[in-house]
Amino acid sequence: MDKFRILLLHPDAQVRTELRQALDRTDFARVVGEAVTAFEAMELIEAIPYGAIFLGFELPGGVSGVEFAQMLISRKHRPALVFVAQDESLAYKAFELEALDYLRWPGETSRFEKTMQRLRAFRSTFKEAPMPEPRAWAADDEDDEDEGGLVKVPMAEDEEDRFLSALRQAWDFKGRSPEIEKLPITLDGKLLLVPYDEIIFVEAYEDYSYVHTSQNKFLTSHRLKDLEARLRSHRFFRVHRKYLVNLDMVTEIASLPGSNFMLRTTVKGKTRIELPVSRRRIAELKQILGL
């Protein structure tokens, strides 16, 4: 049987080296990749069926270890998570995220052996994901000009979309529309359904997106282009390569010097949000708004 594949996700090179050396001494596990940011780790996960991930809490790039774990919760072949920290202050949070173990590093050898025992037990019941098929590298169509021809890897269909599809089928009966105007978002091990009319705007972030409401900001595995296709018929408009806006929330369109425009929304009469409108989209926006 092949050795259990391990991914190390930690910003400290010394910690990764020490973990690799410790894992290399085991007879059933093998480190097959290291990453510093959550986005690097997600790219590796799409290419390699890992059995476990050793990860830190604080990661560069805008996505923490906790947020990364939240993105993995709904995956069918979810690898075991072993959080690594200098002290035990965040242990409760790790186990809330269904972590297999919490390892203080550096720590005692006996404690590391206990983690290995848990990994062995997990491996005996773990159904490994199939090796992904080779993917063709592709770029977004209209965003090539804006992003300088940045090449991207398309993401696989996620569990949230299948969950939403199942809900639509369950609710599809005569006289009632199967359309559910809610966006599924994974948070703290739960699947939230956020009503479309509570979303103010969506912000692209790498191959992921932040969904902004008046109360919260959710990191999701949805790509902005996919959300544009889903939400366009619900009066959402992509005003910029980075922003998708709920037009029902827009309170003002301001003209700026240089033929530029800015959308403004007011949340609860107090907080004002300003988003740029790209020049090539302003004509379509005016047509939609009847200007």
From TrEMBL:
SMART domains: LytTR (SM00850), REC (SM00448). Residues 5-120 form the Response regulatory domain. InterPro entries: CheY-like_superfamily, LytR-like, LytTR_DNA-bd_dom, Sig_transdc_resp-reg_receiver. It comes from the Bacteria. Residues 183-291 form the HTH LytTR-type domain. GO terms for molecular function: DNA binding; phosphorelay response regulator activity. SUPFAM superfamilies: CheY-like. Gene3D superfamilies: 3.40.50.2300, LytTr DNA-binding domain. This is Two component transcriptional regulator, LytTR family.
